[in-house]
Amino acid sequence: MSSSSASEEDALEYNMSEDLEDSPAVISPPPPSKPEKASKYKNRTRRHFPYNSDFQMFELKRALSPTRSTCPGPDGITYNMLRHLDGSSLLHLLRLFNRMWSEQLFPTKWHEAIVIPILKPGKDPKESTN
Prior knowledge:
The structure is a single chain. It is elongated, with a radius of gyration of 19 Å. The protein has 4 helices and 2 strands. The termini are far apart. It has a domain at 52-64 and 78-106. It is mainly α. This is Reverse transcriptase domain-containing protein. Residues 1-45 are annotated as: Disordered. It comes from Araneus ventricosus (Orbweaver spider).
């Protein structure tokens, strides 16, 4: 292994450890006792338009690359974690997205979000418009 690839590997381990240090238990949650509910969306067209085709690996990578380091969602997964997946893991993620897209099934949990209101400086916290 060259010294540059060793330093890249060390940097990757360091970045991942920063993301994981606060929530290691979230990485491998226990399997659910029941299958997760999914929402079915009806595709209104049977025609094969380009936007109905499978996602490609370059599209997944392009979607992940411009994202900023944000707080994790309810699942504890950060964009940094997704950006640092190896090729095999990215392929599994791509297949998952393509299957969901083609079968039009989306996990109900994906409809959830954590919203944290942030008060602007100098504004009255009792005023609902702030």
